[in-house]
User: Fold this.
Amino acid sequence: MQEIKTIEAFQSTIEKGHVVVKFYADWCPDCHRIDPFMPEVEAQYRDQLRMVQVNRDTLPDLAEQYDVFGIPSFIAFKDGHETIRFVSKLGKTREEIEHFCVRAVQVAQSITSQKK
Assistant:
């Protein structure tokens, strides 16, 4: 998963297509617990969305701007606009993350349909 390290890179990344941003921290045990299966989840949805990650301790202003306090947290964007989020202080399971990805794809497709 690509690491976003600057606010400028974040802005340019979310402006293009359908993107899911995972906010995490190095010290977060729940973040490390999902690391083993995240490459498979990313590969499963590769044709429908792009997944990137942001270390909330590296870009604290960005995490604050998007009200990300619990980690790991996921926020989906379509062409620069937030569409759906999975933000909580609780740990997340693979099934919950996959369900979020399905919903994120559905919401993005709905937005695309409405624009036509």
Notes: The first helix runs from residue 7 to 14. The radius of gyration is 13 Å. The helical segments are 7-14, 29-34, 38-44, 60-65, 94-115.
